[in-house]
Amino acid sequence: MPRISITVPGMNAQPYRFELERAVVTLGRGSDNDVVIDSGSVSGFHAEMRRVQTGYELVDVGSTNGIKLHEHRYQVIPLENHTTVYIGDVAFDFSLSDEELQAIAYQNRAVHHPLPPVSPTFTEAQIPPIRQVPQRQSYTPVKRSGGGGMVFLFLILAIAAFFAGLSVRFNKETGGTLYEVLLQKYLPSALPATAPATEAPTSDPMGQ
C-alpha cells in the first residue's frame, strides 16, 4: 500500500495508507477530501494523488498556493519513492514498499514492451475449403463390332455364287467353260500348249 505522511508545521506527522489500485486520492482543507489537511496555506480542494500507468503523480487542481518540489511550483509532480512535496507549506512525504516498486516496474515494462498479440486459432469456418481433385476417368476401349467382316464375307460369297451361276449357264449354252474363255481372251499364255492336229495316215488299198 502506498504510504503518505502529512506534516503540518508545528504539528505531528499524520500517516496514511492506500490500496495500490486506488485511482484518485483527494487532498485539501475541506472535510469531504480523502486526506483533510488543517492548514491555512491549503485550499479547500487543493490537489489529487492519481494512479497512472507508470506509478503515481500529484496534480494541482487549482489551489491558491500550489504544489512545490525543491521550492519550485509545478502543475504536475511525478511521485517517486521517498519523494517530499509541499502542499502550500505542508510537507507531503510519499513512499512505496519493495513489493510495490516491483509491481509498478513490471507494469511499466508491460506498457512500454507489450507482448505480441496471440494469433487467433483457426475455427472450422475460417479454414479454407479443400479443393476436390477430379478423378481421372478410366478409359474403356471400345470393342469394334464384327459386322464389317461379315458384310465383306457376304459380298465375297455373293460374287462367287454369281460367277458360279454364270459359269453353269455359259456351259449349258456353249458347251465350254467360262473360265477357259476368260483365260483365252485375257491370259492366253496361261493356257497349256496344244499340239497341232495331224492327219491320220490313209491306207492304200493297192499297197501303194
Structural overview:
With 208 residues, the chain is of the alpha+beta class. Helix content is 25%, strand content 24%. It contains 3 helices and 11 strands, in the order E-E-E-E-E-E-E-E-E-E-E-H-H-H. The chain has helices at residues 98-112, 147-174, 178-186, and strands at residues 3-7, 14-17, 24-28, 35-36, 47-52, 55-60, 67-69, 72-74, 76-79, 83-87, 90-95. The strands form 2 sheets. The protein has a 6-stranded antiparallel sheet, with no helix packed on it. The longest helix is centred in the last third of the chain and has 28 residues, at 147-174. It is rod-shaped. The N and C termini lie far apart (181 Å). The mean pLDDT is 77.
Give a brief rundown of this model.
With 208 residues, the protein is an alpha+beta fold. Helices cover 25% and strands 24% of the residues. Strands 2-1-11-10-7-8 form a six-stranded antiparallel β-sheet, with no helix packed on it.
